[in-house]
Design goal:
Blueprint: H1 2-8, H2 16-41, H3 45-74, H4 83-88
Transmembrane segments: 14-35, 47-72
GO biological process, one term: mitochondrial electron transport, cytochrome c to oxygen
Catalytic activity: 4 Fe(II)-[cytochrome c] + O2 + 8 H(+)(in) = 4 Fe(III)-[cytochrome c] + 2 H2O + 4 H(+)(out)
Amino acid sequence: SHICLSVSMCPDAFGFYGLLFAMFSIVCLGSSVWGHHMFTVGLDVKTAVFFSSVTMIIGVPTGIKVFTWLYMLLNSRVNKSDPILWWIV
C-alpha cells in the first residue's frame, strides 16, 4: 500500500471505486465457485453457510487491497513501462 501511494501520488489508499470493484468481483466469483462446491460435495446448509462466511471474512479484505492497488496504479500518472509498476502487478 505504501509503494502504491508513493508511486501513484494519490491522497488516500482506499478509494470508493477500489472498494466497489473488489466487493463486486468477490461476490460474483465467490458465488459461482462456492455454489459449484456446495452442490458437488453435498454439504448441508449450516456447513455451507459457515464455509461461505469464513471465505468472505478472509477474501473481502484481500480483494479490497488488491483491487485498490490496481485501480490506483492504472489511474495514476505512472509511466506504464516503469519497472516498479510491473513488479507490483
